[in-house]
Design brief:
Elements lengths: L1 H12 L7 H35 L5 H8 L1 H19 L5 E10 L4 E9 L13 E2 L9 H8 L5 E3 L2 H7 L7 H6 L2 E8 L5 E9 L9 H54 L5
Antiparallel strand pairs: 1-2, 1-6, 2-3, 4-5, 5-6
Helix pairs in contact: 1-8, 2-4, 2-8, 3-4, 4-8
Length: 270
């Protein structure tokens, strides 16, 4: 119901008819597709892990992440949101990204881990480290959002607001100067830390809404459900990492026990 309500709001703010069944159905189906993908891949991974435990030849954590890891699902979410905006809002110049929090030695940083862009171009800042709480006063907007550690939806409704808040990256100067609207959806974990940020920006005036309230409602009612789905995957990956440590220990113990039994059963050679 939350997503359905959000879709109706998005339609009304964009001056589209609420009875546009095709738009309504496509947006609703897109979220269901991501959910189904996660369920199917989780089931597949579960079967492979059971087989690995039985055969004592566990697949690597990297392979498991490639199947259903946070980054893999983040790319799916970016594709999905980009498709909705491109096909249903009629805006092709759109970029959707996910930035994640990481910890280094005595510092924290963010990195873009997933994206979907106009003409599928790789963003110049993809995988670049952005140090948090540095002495730099000219910080990118997303760094300021992470440092604020607030779960509030962030919106920039027009070019003037974008220009006032963005620090232009010379590598993508032309694209960033064309940005007309921005929505940022932060996610806070159970420990009270912002762990990732879902961002959407477009290069057409007022395509996502006519004012701040419209963009905020779009963020809460349409983009937030995707962020919540992503957070479930984020926590699932943390559980998976713990499971792998336990599984590796169990297998090591089993092998040691078997070797011990084997040596005990062998003659002394006298």
């Amino acid at each position: 119901m939350l997503l359905e309500f959000g879709i109706i709001l998005a339609i009304s703010h964009n001056n589209k008819k609420v009875n546009d069944i095709k738009w309504f159905q496509n947006a609703l189906n897109s979220h269901g597709t991501v959910n189904a993908f996660i369920a199917n891949t989780a089931y597949s991974l579960s079967n492979r892990l059971i087989e690995s435990k039985r055969d004592k030849s566990i697949i690597s954590l990297k392979i498991a992440r490639d199947i259903i890891g946070f980054q893999r699902i983040a790319f799916n979410v970016c594709d999905d949101i980009h498709s909705i905006i491109s096909n249903q809002f009629g805006c092709t110049k759109c970029q959707v990204t996910v930035l994640q929090l990481f910890s280094g030695q005595n510092y924290e940083f963010t990195q873009m881990i997933a994206y979907k862009t106009y003409q599928s171009r790789i963003p110049s800042s993809y995988k670049e480290k952005y140090i948090l709480h540095s002495q730099n006063n000219n910080k990118p907007y997303h760094v300021k959002i992470f440092e604020s550690n607030s779960s509030d939806i962030k919106t920039l409704v027009n070019k003037a607001e974008v220009k006032a808040n963005f620090v232009i990256d010379s590598r993508s100067k032309k694209r960033q100067e064309e940005i007309c609207q921005y929505v940022g959806v932060p996610t806070i974990d159970s420990e009270g830390r912002m762990v990732f940020l879902l961002q959407v920006d477009v290069s057409e005036d007022y395509i996502l809404g006519k004012d701040t309230n419209a963009l905020t409602e779009l963020g809460y009612n349409v983009f937030l459900p995707y962020a919540q789905l992503l957070y479930a995957t984020y926590e699932q990956e943390r559980v998976l990492e713990t499971f792998y440590r336990i599984l590796h220990n169990d297998i090591a113990v089993d092998i040691i026990a078997q070797e011990s039994e084997k040596s005990e059963g062998e003659p002394d050679g006298e």
